[in-house]
Design a protein that fits this description.
This protein has a single domain, classed as Metallo-dependent phosphatases (Purple Acid Phosphatase, chain A, domain 2), CATH 3.60.21. With 302 residues, it is an alpha/beta fold. The strands form 5 sheets. A 5-stranded mixed β-sheet has the order 5-4-1-15-16. Strands 6-7-13-14 form a 4-stranded mixed β-sheet, with no helix packed on it. A 3-stranded antiparallel β-sheet has the order 8-11-12. α3 crosses α5. It binds manganese (II) ion. The site of manganese (II) ion has 6 residues, from loops.
Length: 302
């Protein structure tokens, strides 16, 4: 069956340690397991010390048929950074904040233009989600209406069509919104006058949410990544706040920089991003086809 791994963010050494612990061995440059396949939820790049090595490891597995890989928001952004719009401006504007987010990758990619080009070409082949008979994988949020929009702009392997990148990066286009939801999650604006400072020391006016929850609509319950909840409104999110999850199949996510000991978000939702890109562990969920997920199937290395 499948071992689903979280965001790598340039931490190739942590990934190697995890693969070894899971029983994978490197053979002629490709990590393999005798009976299992790997699934990556995306976000191989940005932040960490080994950008190229992280990409090459997972790409070699992908090309050898040992891994399935989806695109995270960081791979999407890497392509948009390097792709011009119809006026020759980058699809992702090169602001100082965005440069800072992408700097570790650019520092390794720009001196290796052939590798850079080839890596972006590979990123462009990656689907934005996976739906297999026994499980689903998305980077941040499973949302059927957004999935339907993405399907209208992708090929049969799930890769965005070559001419869809312009639409994908255009604010206000339905494809832009759909990719925002699936790969960045269900974010909601804070009411006028509210903001918080994230770990990157940037002021934020939107919160990431535990979009799958149906038991609370309080800002302080559903917010993710806000260390001090007292900065948030003491009340409920207005309107039909969260999309919820139908729980039809087990679902695996990355993206959320979770903290503490890896655990399930529900009996059918497992986030496998526990901040390996910072000081957290690299985490996998060992999936064997079970309908109900279990906390004791998380495996991790620090
Ligand atoms: Mn990430």
């Amino acid at each position: 069956m499948y071992d689903i791994i979280g965001d790598v963010h340039g931490q190739a050494e942590k990934l190697e340690a995890l693969l070894r612990k899971l029983g994978y061995r490197e053979q002629r440059g490709v990590w393999r397991h005798p009976t299992r396949k790997l699934i990556s939820v995306g976000d191989l790049v940005d932040r960490g010390p080994q950008q190229k090595r992280s990409v090459d490891m997972v790409r070699a597995m992908h090309e050898a048929g040992e891994a399935l890989v989806i695109m995270g928001n960081h791979e999407f952004n890497a392509v948009a950074w390097a792709t011009p719009d119809e006026n020759g401006e980058p699809l992702r504007p090169h602001s100082p904040h965005r440069f800072e987010q992408h700097e570790a990758f650019l520092r390794e990619a720009e001196p290796n233009p052939d590798w850079y080009r080839s890596t972006l070409d590979w990123f462009k082949t990656l689907p934005l989600y996976l739906e297999l008979p026994e499980l689903r994988v998305t980077h941040a949020c499973w949302h059927e209406p957004s999935k339907a929009v993405i399907d209208a702009h992708t090929d049969t392997d799930g890769a965005l069509l070559a001419d869809a990148w312009q639409r994908a990066a255009r604010k206000g286009h339905e494809l832009y919104d759909a990719i925002e939801v699936m790969s960045k999650g269900w974010e909601i604006p804070l009411p006028e006058g509210y903001s918080f400072i994230d770990e990157g020391k940037h002021e934020r006016y939107h919160i990431r949410t535990q979009w799958w929850r149906d038991d609370s609509r309080l800002y302080r319950d559903i917010a993710l990544g806000v260390d001090d909840g007292s900065n948030l409104p003491d009340g409920e999110v207005p309107g039909a706040a969260l999309p919820g999850y139908d729980h039809a199949k087990p679902l695996f996510l990355g993206h959320y920089w979770m903290k503490g000991e890896p655990c399930l978000q529900s009996s059918r939702i497992a986030c496998v991003d526990w901040s390996a890109g910072k000081e957290g562990p690299m985490v996998a969920y060992r999936f064997d086809g079970e309908d109900e997920l279990s906390n004791d199937k998380f495996v991790w290395t620090r």
